[in-house]
Amino acid sequence: MGTILNPYISFRDQARPALEFYQSVFGGELDLRPFSDFEFAKTENRDDDNKIMHGHLRAPNGLNLMAADTPASMEWKGGTAISVTLSGDDKDEITEYWKKLSDGATVGEKLAQAPWGDWFGMLTDKFGVDWMVNIAGPATTGQ
């Protein structure tokens, strides 16, 4: 296996429903590990026991997404200045992802052909995660 860079999203209480939603968007295998599964990670707050200490979605096309809940005993720095970017050249596949991600989302920029020839859109999904979607346009040839 080569080097992989994965988005790892931090939530307060929404890791499980968020990852289940992303599984409905991208498909794949979802591995959810609550704090209660790990002796070292058990918290004094029993409400945190069923929160996700580590979640990993592995989609069949190689997409990976990880997430976890931040226990109540720790400071949560929600709302980061980062976006998850989804890019490629399969317009049908990526448009379908866009439609599914748009469910309950705030669309900042509709998915449409951009001046540079690609199709581009931006949204904040129902869990507060920012997404940028880019579908490669037709290649141009130099003269």
Automatic annotation (TrEMBL):
**Which Pfam family would be a valid example here?**
3-dmu-9_3-mt
> Can you tell me which residues the record assigns to a coiled coil?
none
Q: Which CDD domains match?
A: PhnB_like (cd06588)
Q: Record's superkingdom? A: Bacteria
What PANTHER family does UniProt report for this protein, alphabetically?
Answer: PROTEIN YJDN, PROTEIN YJDN-RELATED
What is the protein's given name?
A: Glyoxalase/bleomycin resistance protein
Domain PhnB-like, chain residue ranges per copy: 7-133
Q: Which InterPro entries is this protein grouped with?
A: Glyas_Bleomycin-R_OHBP_Dase, PhnB-like
